[in-house]
Amino acid sequence: MKELEAVLIAFRESTRCDAAVWTADGSGGLRAVARSNLRLQRPETVPDSNSVTPLSVNDGSMLVAAVPGVKQTWLAVAPCDGETPGEKHLRMLLPFVGQVLRGAQEVEHAALELAERYEEINLLYTIGEILGRTVTLEDAAATILTEISETVGARHASILVHEPGTDMLHVVAAIGTDAHTAPPIRVDDPTCVSSRVFRTQHPLTVEAGEMECEAERPYRRGEMLSVPIMWTTPTGGEPLGVVNLSDRRSKQPYSAGDQKLVAAIATQIGTAIQNARLVKSSLEQQRLLQEMYLAHDLQMKLLPKTTIVSPEAEVSARVVPAESVGGDFYHLFRMPRNRTGVMIGDVSGHGYRAALIMALAMSASSIHAQSTKDPGEMLSTLFGSLREELSSTEMYISIFFGVIDHTAAKLRYANNGHPHAFKIDGDGTTVRLQADTPPMGLTDQAPAAGSVPWQKGSDTLALFTDGIVDSRNADGERLGEASVLDVIVKNRAKKPAEIVAAVFDLLEAHSGEIPSPDDLTLLILKS
Amino acid sequence: MSFSISKQGEVVVVDVEGQLIVGNRQELKQKVLDELEKGEKKFLIDFSQTGYIDSSGLGVLVSLSKKIREQGGELRLANLNDDLQTLFELTKLDTLFQISDTRERALESF
Questions:
Q1: Which of A178, A272, A280, A360 is deepest in the core (most CB within 10 A)?
Q2: B28-50 burial, b for 16+ CB within 10 Å, e for fewer?
Q3: Is any Cβ of chain B less than 8 angstroms from the Cβ of A398?
C-alpha cells in the first residue's frame, strides 16, 4: 500500500527507525501490508488484536502493537540505528497507521458497494430489455431468474406462477433443477414456504431445516428467500406467484437489502407475467375473431343467391346478424309448374346456437319444399325434422313459407308465429299474411295454408324479422312496424333492391351507430 | 330490471320490472323454478311494469309454462301492454297462455 509505505519511510527519515505493518494472511501467518525497508524481519509472534500493550519480539529487537480499529493488523517497529526501538516511537506512529488503514478500508468498502449497485442497475436494465421484447411467460421467467440468481449468487432458485383454475402454484422457471419435473404446490398447502408467501403476500426468509417441504426440495438447499410476485392494479395488489432463492454461493445469509432488491424485481416479473398473459389472450382473441369471420362467411354462403328464382321472380334480401352469426334466415326455391317458393325464419336468440338451428332448418327445408304439396304440410314436415333439436335446446322458430303460383296468380302460404309477413298491392293496400299457429317448437299444431291473389307486375311480398321493428334510437324508442311498412308502401313501384336499401336507410337514420341487439333480415319479392 | 316475488293466497305472483330479455331471462326462470321446487303450483306473472319482451324472453315463458304444467300447476299472465298484447296475438302465443287484463281477474281465474 503506497500511501502507508510513504508514511513509514517518512517515519524512518525522522526517527531513524524502520517500521512495517503486517496483517493476518488467513492461514495463520503474516503478510506485509507496507514496509520502510524490504529486509525487515517478520515478527515471530504478535500480541492479541484487542491488546493495547506493545510486545517485545524477535529477542527484544522489535516492538509490535495491534493497530487500533483495524482487525488483525499490527505495527512493528525495528531497531533505530542499531539501538532497541523505544515505545515512544511506536506510540507516535500507531495513530497515523490506524488512520491511513481505516481510510483505505473505507475506500475499499465504498468501491465494493458501488460495484454491487452497478450489478443491480445492470440487472434492472436486463429485466427492462426482457420486458420490452414479446416473449412467452416461460422464456421471460427463465431469463429473469438467471439474472437475479447471478446477482445475489443463488445456485438454486425458482419462479412459481399461480394458476387460478386449479388454485395451484406451478414452477415455470428453475435453476439447479428441471422446471418441468418440479411438482406444483397447492395454495392452501400449510407446509410449503411458497404457498405461505403467496397467501400472506409478504417476503419470508426461512433457515435451513425450517418449513422444509417435499415439493420445494428440487430448488431449495438450506436457507431460502421467498418473495411474492405482485401485479399492481389501481385498486391494490394482486399476487401472481412467488420467486424463491436458495443455496447462496457466499454462504452469507440473505440481508434486508437482498429482500428489497428481490421484491423490486418480483414486481417486474409480475409485469412480465401480465404482459405474457395479455399477449397470449390477445392472440387467442385474434384467432377467435378470425374463426368468427369464417363462421359469418360460411353462414352467409348458406343463404341462396336471389337470382335462383329469376326471371319468374325478382328478389332482394339482406341479413345482418347481431353477432358474427345469427338465427335469422331466408330461403328461395325454384319449384316445378312455374312456382316460386320463399321462406323467412327467425330462430329465438342469436349467436352460435341459433346459427346451428338455422343451418338445420335451411338444409331440411331444401328437401321438404320440393317433396311436399302444400305450404302447411311443408312447415309441418320441417317441424318433424327439427322437433328433437328444438326441444333439447328450448329454442323455437317463427317461420313463414309462401309459394307463388305464377300461372294461377295465387300466393299460398303457411305461417308458424312469424309476425311480419305482408303482401302490398299495386294501390298500396297492405295485407298481413297472418300466423295461425305459434312459432315452431312451441306447439305441435300444424299451420293451415292460406291463399291470396297474386298479381304479377304490381304486387310486392315483404318479409322481415323483429330485429328491424325493434331497433331502438338513442332515446330507446322502437322503430316500429308501421314506419317500416310505410317506407315499403311508398317505394312499392321501385325495384326490390331499392326498397331494401330504403328500409335500411330508415333503420340507419333511426338507430345511427347504436348496434342492434338482434339479427336484422328483410326480403322483398316482386314478379 | 328486476323480478319481485310475492304470495297472494295460494298464488305466487312475479312482477317483472323493465324488460324480459336475453340478459335476465335465466334469473326469472330460476326464481320461478325455485318456487316450483318448494311445491308451489299456482303462478301469475304480472307485466304491468314491463315494456319489452324479446324472443328469448318469450321462450322462457313457454318453457316455464311447460314445466309448471308437468308438475300439475298453472301459469297465468296479466297486464300485457298494447305492444306486448299485439306481439302475443301476431305470433299466436296468445293460444298457449291464459292472459288476463288485470291482476285481480288473473287471480280470480285460478
A1: A272
A2: bbeebeebbeeebbbbbbbbeeb
A3: yes
User: Is A497 within the bounds of a domain?
Assistant: yes
pTM for this prediction: 0.59
The residue whose grid cell reads 328464382 is A309
pLDDT tens digits along A281-308: 888 888 888 888 888 888 888 899 999 9
pLDDT value at position A28?
Answer: 83
A58: number of Cβ within 10 Å: 16
CA distance A45 to A58: 8
Domain count, chain B: 1
Taking the C-alpha atoms of residue A481 and residue A503, their distance in angstroms, rounded to an integer, is 11
Q: Is residue A67 one of the residues assigned to a domain?
A: yes
Q: Quick check: A408 and A456 in contact, CB under 8 A?
A: no
For residues B38 and B73, the answer to whether their CB atoms sit within 8 Å is no
A83 lies in the same domain as A140:
no
Number of domains in chain A: 3
- Domain with B51, as residue range(s), is 2-108
CA distance B101 to B110: 14
* ipTM score of complex: 0.75
Give the domain range for residue A258. 133-279
For residue A385, give the nearest of A370, A363, A404, A403 by alpha carbon.
A363
Q: Are residues A456 and A358 in the same domain?
A: yes
Strands (E), A177-223: 185-186, 204-206
Determine the Cα–Cα distance for residues A467 and A454; give it in Å rounded to an integer.
Answer: 27
Greater model confidence, A81 or A77: A77
Q: How far is CA A367 from the centre of its chain?
A: 48
Q: Are residues A428 and A463 in the same domain?
A: yes
Q: Can you give the CATH number for the domain in which A205 is found?
A: 3.30.450.40
Contact A348 B58 (CB under 8 A): yes
Q: What is the mean pLDDT of residues A444-449?
A: 90
Residues A416 and A513 in one domain: yes
Confidence of residue A85 (pLDDT cuts 50, 70, 90): low
Same domain, A402 and A317: yes
> CB B62 to CB A442 under 8 A?
yes
Cα-Cα-Cα-Cα dihedral sign, residues A242, A247, A248, A251? positive
Give the count of Cβ contacts less than 8 A between chain A and B. Answer: 54
Nearest Cβ partner for B55 among A434, A438, A466: A466
Find the CATH number of the domain harbouring B37.
Answer: 3.30.750.24
Taking the CA of residue A378 as centre, how many other CA atoms within 13 Å lie in the half-sphere pointing to its CB? 28
Nearest residue to A273 via CA among A221, A217, A231, A321:
A231
**Does A307 lie in the same domain as A264?**
no
Residue A404 shares a structural domain with residue A494: yes
| Residue B61, CB-side half-sphere exposure with 13 Å CA sphere | 26
pLDDT at A158: 95
- Report, as an integer, the average pLDDT of B27-44: 93
For residue B59, give the nearest of A395, A478, A517 by CB distance.
Answer: A395
C-alpha cell at A80: 533505530
Q: Chain-wide mean pLDDT for chain A?
A: 88
Closest-CA residue to B32 (of B2, B3, B70):
B3
All three cell numbers of B17, joined, read: 320490472
Supply A212's cell numbers.
422444509
Chain B residues with CB under 8 Å of A396 CB are 59, 62
